[in-house]
Write a structure and sequence with these properties.
Layout: H1 3-22, H2 26-39, H3 44-57, H4 68-71, H5 73-85, H6 88-99, H7 106-118, H8 122-135, H9 140-152, H10 156-169, H11 174-192, H12 206-212, H13 225-235, H14 240-252, H15 256-270, H16 274-301, H17 306-333, H18 338-350, H19 354-364, H20 371-384, H21 388-398, H22 408-424, H23 428-441, H24 448-457
Helix pairs in contact: 1-2, 2-3, 5-6, 6-7, 7-8, 7-9, 8-9, 9-10, 10-11, 13-14, 14-15, 15-16, 16-17, 17-18, 18-19, 19-20, 20-21, 20-22, 21-22, 22-23, 23-24
Length: 458
């Protein structure tokens, strides 16, 4: 079964799991979430939902079921066998079997992390390693594995924190010391955005500027909103409203990792509130986008480096797949939100899934905010799907919706696309007129001049 075939049934299972959570039917919620995980093992939201339901089933006791050690012996045997044969999918599911008995088990969480790492599901790997570290923060092996995944994703500060924990355990560990130095340097360059900038203060996040100028030192009450809210959270760590306010302040200051951590706590405190989960997903998407941006900058600095090129491609594909997962779930939850359908359609277009995008765009064109762009994209989808006359009708319907003053790029794209399509349909006169529309506002746009000259010469 392809990933496209599993997407909807997995989302349906996840939705049924959410309904069961509201009724505190933990066993059925776990069953539904686990099915979603089996169908889409790379989906972080499904994993988080599954673990949350498992924690609630055992009333957050930290040890799971009675006699968990005896009851998980079968799962442990399966994980050992899967590791030996490098059956990573088998290791994943065997570990999940054990986590149903004790979701706090360090070894099983590590197994899920290792399997996800090997299968290139970095978000799931990070989540699982961090869950394991909650019970065994000083575990050298898990800290090292987590650091490797975080570094690969460009999250240098968090990776360095892992190595610092290792160095604290082993003060003579030279690898940890050199890694910390290297990661701190990378963090300053990449997250500060120094490369290609005219000045450091022009590109750093506000909290980084303040830090370097000596700010944020023992700020008193009322002097720093973040410090004030952090104090409020320390006084009442279970207050989800304060956690949400703190996450919002972090997010405004581009402290996305801190925002994510605060939202995770708010989600737990809320009992899995779906609205908080959506905000958390948005922050996680922003983090992934930031990782892609860092990888692109690294590639620009060494454009012949094939490894860096492949990393950009892999991270961009991972982000796109995650966006499709998130927007698919939300369009199911909010079927009347045409803007969400438009956003999902644009992601399908990036994946060249024209037939999946078309019905979404047909619906989203009813929203005046995106009508023009929906029609242009619909025309492109029909053109790529070899339905030229349908494509032309959509493009022409978009003309009165778009003007150059408000949407210059879309305006040029529309008339250029119409010119190309009319060329293919052998309507040379119309093609000339559309290319002239483009050149009237931008004489250097793509190859419009060359194409017009060719048509007029012919």
């Amino acid at each position: 079964m392809s990933s496209g075939d599993t997407q909807k049934p997995a989302a349906d299972c996840w939705r049924r799991g959410n309904e069961a959570v509201q009724k505190e039917n933990w066993d059925y919620a776990i069953q539904m979430y686990l099915t979603a995980v089996k169908l889409r093992p790379e989906n972080l939201t499904y994993r988080q939902s599954l673990r949350f339901a498992e924690y609630k089933k055992f009333n957050n006791n930290g040890t799971g079921a009675a006699m968990a050690g005896m009851r998980t012996m079968g799962a442990k045997t399966k994980t050992k066998k899967s590791r030996m044969t490098k059956d990573w999918a088998g290791l994943d599911m065997a570990a999940e079997e054990g986590l149903q008995v004790n979701p706090w088990d360090v070894a099983f969480n590590q197994d899920v992390g290792d399997a996800a790492k090997a299968r290139e599901f970095p978000e799931v790997a990070i989540f699982s390693y961090e869950e394991a570290l909650k019970k065994d923060l000083g575990n050298k092996e898990i800290n090292k594995s987590l650091a490797e995944v975080l570094e690969e994703r460009g999250e240098y500060k968090r990776a360095a924190d892992c190595w610092r924990r290792i160095l604290k355990l082993e003060p003579t560990n030279g690898e940890a010391r050199s890694k910390i130095t290297a990661l701190d340097t990378k963090g300053v360059m990449d997250r500060g955005g120094y490369e290609g900038a005219e000045s450091t203060t022009g590109v750093m996040a506000p909290h980084e500027v303040a830090k370097r100028m000596g700010g944020n030192k023992a700020a008193g009450p009322g002097q720093d909103p973040i410090a004030d809210m952090e104090r409020a959270v320390r006084k009442d760590p279970g207050n989800k409203d304060n956690l949400l306010k703190l996450a919002d302040l972090y997010r405004r200051e581009a402290r996305l990792e801190d925002a994510e951590a605060s939202l995770q706590k708010a989600l737990e405190a809320s009992g899995g509130n779906i609205n908080i989960r959506e905000v958390l997903e948005d922050v996680q998407l922003e983090l992934m986008a930031k990782t892609v941006t860092v990888a692109k900058e690294q590639f620009r600095a060494a454009p012949t480096d094939e490894v860096r090129k492949q990393r950009v491609v892999a991270l961009a594909a991972e982000l796109l797949n995650r966006e499709v997962e998130v927007f698919s779930a939300r369009t199911d939850r909010y079927p009347q939100d045409m803007r969400l359908k438009f956003e999902l359609a644009t992601r399908f277009m990036k994946q060249q899934k024209w037939q999946a995008a078309i019905p979404l765009l047909q619906q989203s064109r009813s929203d005046p905010r995106v009508k023009g762009e929906s029609l242009v994209n619909l025309g492109k989808c029909f053109a790529y799907d070899k339905k030229a006359q349908l494509a032309r009708r959509q493009f022409e319907a978009a003309i009165p919706e778009i003007n150059h003053e408000n949407q210059p790029d879309l305006f040029k794209d529309l008339f250029y696309s119409l010119g190309r399509l009319c060329e293919e349909l052998q309507d040379k006169q119309s093609a000339e007129e559309y290319y002239q529309k483009v050149l009237e506002v931008d004489y250097t746009y793509r190859d419009a001049v060359k194409r017009l000259d060719s048509l007029q010469g012919a």
